[in-house]
Amino acid sequence: MAPRRLLTPLAALLLAIAGAASPARAQALNATVMLPGFRGVVRLDTVGTAVAVNAPPGAVFTALRFALDSLGVEVAVRDSAAGLVGNLGLKHTRRFAGKQMSTWVDCGIGHTGATANAYRVHMAILAGVAAASDGGSRVRVAVAAGAQAFSGPLGDPIACESTGAIENRILELVRQRLGAP
Hints:
Oligomer: single chain
Distance between the termini: 62 Å
Largest sheet: 7 strands, antiparallel
Number of strands: 13
Low-confidence stretches: 1-27
Mean pLDDT: 84
Strand content: 25-35%
Shape: elongated
Helix content: 10-25%
Radius of gyration: 19 Å
């Protein structure tokens, strides 16, 4: 019986990169983030629902960048080959995109009202676009958030969840930009 060969770290890295770049995984949103209130990493590929958009992926990718810019999201992740655009390190207090934070994320209720409006909210917003078999695209917007009191490490961090409003607003802006229903 021949001895088993172990992959060198470089070979393992190259295989991982090749697998991540394959078209079948283009919309996998493989990013992970650490957010206050969560015990470990949040995998963005477990968040969001794919939605059909009747336009080619390139046009949808451009419209996604426009939508995020319209909301005031500084795009830090821009990978047109993988179809990914977003920001994994947003920090906002009280307001985001012209509305109270509680419009976008639910972090529970405290003695002063919605916690999202009183804490510093850390968010990750990542959108992925991939070609659909009908010639259109599939878009998935992942939003994850956690909140931390201004007292810093002395206050307990809180895991938040999206209300769905950010995802809906992004998709609405994409469709407006594309002139699609």
